[in-house]
Protein 1
Amino acid sequence: MIRIYLLLIIGFFCLKISYSQYFIWNAGTDNFFDNREYFNKYVEPQSMLGTQIFASAGFLVDENNSFYGGFNFLHEYGSKPAYANIKPTMYFRHASRNAKVYMGSFSRRNLITHPNVLLTDTFKYYRPNVEGIYLEFSKPWGSQTAWLDWTSRQTETDRETFLIGGTGTLMPAKWFLQYNFLMYHYAGTAIPDSTDHIRDNGGLTFHGGINLSENTFLDSLCFKTGLTFSYDRLRHVYDTDLRLGSLTELYASYNFFGLRTTNYFGEGQIQMVGDGLYSAKFYNRTDLIIYFFKKNRVKSFVEFSLHFLPEVVDVSQKFSIYIDISGKKEISAIN
């Protein structure tokens, strides 16, 4: 299957070269060490160490439209290499002044930016690609995104699951308003089962904030606060359960140092794909970040985190090196 897939990509490139003027590629590696020393009742401790290699290439058909094909490979240290960890990357991209459209299997990096309370950050390790569609519309005063990620196709043994999300931002100046929405549809298999019920789950965050990065000596200074709620229903078993809480975040950085603190108060959230630590009635996460490289092609940081929960304080550490060698080269069209 891998050989057939590679032959299709090569054939696609050879076909498109007669109509294209630019050869474009996106390649690099994302190396991570994420050690979570948790001793609480909300989530299990885990250590994640691995390397992702991503590579895709395509052609710029015209000023706004392009096609890509490639792969993303994840290898976790200490595990045996598995072909199942090779994920295809194939998508169409449209980018104009006020709109972006992605359709196919494409990287979620820099596109899906939902807070952890809605979507856990482990998705970037184990599901680096969105398989569906992403839409973005922007103006100087704000933007709106919407996306669909089909996470499992229904078969006789596999459930049908998908994610729908969106982000809207209003930025009149340094003050801003923003919301994030997420819905997770967890259906059954193709074979009916009386004990298998459809589950509807999701949530919404809404907050306002201020960005003072241009008004201080700091590189970044941003504060935002607002509300978050989740909903959960298992059809024919229990009605919709709504949970409400407040969410506040402060981020500041200067030179090679960054500090982020996030506070949650309220009813324990119910999010199937969110960070389980927000199922506590109180949760504070404080991150101290040291940036080693902040260039476009090489980015590296180490992060030390404290997690304050009722009756317990946990710690975690994270180290990351991200290398991007994407580029574009003009070619001569073949008639």
Note: The two ends are 32 Å apart (CA to CA).
Protein 2
Amino acid sequence: MSDQAKQDRPEQAEFRAQCRAWLAANPLPEPPVRLPQSAIEIMHTAQLEYLRDWQRQAYEAGMVGCDYPVASGGAGRRDCQLIANQEMQRAGRPFLPNILGLGMAAPTIQIHGNDFQRENLLPRLFSCADIWCQGFSEPGAGSDLANVQTRAERYGDGWRITGHKVWTSLAHFADWMILLARSDRAHKYEGMTYFVVPIKANLGKTVTVRPLIKITGETGFNEVFFDGLEIPDHYRVGEIGQGWEVAQTTLLHERGAGPWVTPSSGRGGDPERNIADAWGLLELARRSPRAGRTAADDPVLRDRIMQLIIRQEGSRQGARRARVPALCDHPQRIPLQAKLVMSEIRQDVCALAMELQGAAGTLSIGDANAPEGGEWALGYLNSYGVTIAAGTNEIQRNILGERVLGLAKSK
């Protein structure tokens, strides 16, 4: 029995056994195309459809949205989603593609939304019938999110949205977007309102999505333009002018408070051999030639690998501690530090992988001579987006210092 299973309550142990049995009895076919390293790098319809079908199956098996009420499309369980995640990862299953919906939109709608939103939007989000994206960042409002300028103006019984969002992962496939817009120019924090908006249904009309090519050559990011998109008032989430407070729920989950932010390569396989996982450096070192021997024969490199494994395992054990209130000095310290710590560990792991491979580490995916198919090099380039996403790590340090440690605000 794993350490995770030893902590289960009887009902959780029963659910874990159900998940494990279903996963063993329902293997996935091989993907028809190369899968990306995470959901936010999905570029092609073939990638999406394979992963979307997998999420649908997992939802129908009761492993997605299982902690949500039945009325919201969930299974009405308690503290079981993390167990499902653990078992899916243990079985080597790929990531769930609707991660922005699961990790950010769903908890925000459940907490702040109305009955229409919960009953009509969440079941389709969980089953992946609808893909979701996040409309927060703008050209002049990244980590300074309170500078949002996209406008939401009253129009009859509804709203008219005009503005420009950027760095919008999955917008090229998304049916829906969670959107933060300015409804009152006279106030900064009190002048924003939160919405859910249908974007695919309005493409080519009042919504335009343009891909942004990243340093990797992938196009998971996009910019989205709104030119008078009209929506009814029941797509508003929370009260008018309270968008900043609602957005804090989204950001809290994006930065690690929910069960969906878990360490994983995303594409399945042996979890100890995943790209961006420190354990994978052991085998990589054994396969990387160096001066007639291998990188694994170098005691300095072995020590550096073990230091990364220690950091990574320390962070994972900290996540276990976060589930025991008596062991937490602040309820959000460990969840909030998860994004900061794991993103930097991931970057350091991939950087060492590049060093282990030597000059061959500069070869990218698609090059027949690239070690490991160029996946480590791709992971290294992608790691910079992770340290920027959800507010830069510098911003995250400010949040931890001010909200958790009680330090004075930086000037």
Note: The CA atoms of residues 265 and 274 lie 5 Å apart.
Protein 3
Amino acid sequence: MLRHGSVRYELLEHLGTGGSGEVYVARVVGGLERRVCVKRLAGQLGRGEASLLREEARLLAGVRHANVVSLLGYAEDDGAGPFLVMELVEGMDLRTLRHRLGPDRLADGVAVHVACALLRALAAVQRCLPGMVHRDVTPHNVLISAHGEVKLADFGIALARGRARDASARSVRGKIGYMSPEQVRGEPLDPRSDLFAVGVVLYELLSGVRPWSPAAGMRELSAVLEDAPVPLSARRPAIARALADGVDRLCARSRGVRFARAEDALRVLAPFGAGEVGPLRLASVVASLSLDVT
């Protein structure tokens, strides 16, 4: 049980542990009772980690968008330390969705709809916090609600240019397979690195594999640096050429070839999305996959 003033947070379910903390489903006790998501520091961590959690709260507080998980509050428990209170997205993450789909894939229009939602999230982040880089746009951090909403989560390793801790941009943090070449090399990042990750996510949704020849572990890191991405049209010959070209541009090894801004990518990809029926189709998929495991 976590406490902040007269409000208590009863931890109900442990959702996972990452590099920046532990995440739980919690119930607010006192006042307006509801289910929320609570993120707190993992184990006995020091002041540096606590400051990162405060920084994450500050970053999230500056972004309000339908495709970004909302921060509801930041609090400190006398015994357990600081924690974030965020909206709980009832549904599943994109990694779980793909795993439960098995050999099947989302319809192309729905896959593009997911990618466009991520691009809108990143565009909103850039409007509110110019220069900020999420650095971890991966299926695990893409949440799909039971209503078909798509939300980008976990800004725990996000960095903003021009801030004191920007020097740590040279450290390699992220998930293998979705990190841009410049991120693998430990170079300073800009928002085009997040666009690369969106491209890999969409390529994977459309083809079932990532843009390189089959590789695993550290070999995939070297593939990102050394191997030319396989054109999407080589794996999906019948796909619309403009869509394939847009995905390939997002996945380009050279950031100069990628779209300069999320809005630019949106203009190319949006015509191939499912449009207004996208959330309905996603909600249907989530519902059917949830029934399969009950």
Note: The chain has a mean pLDDT of 87.
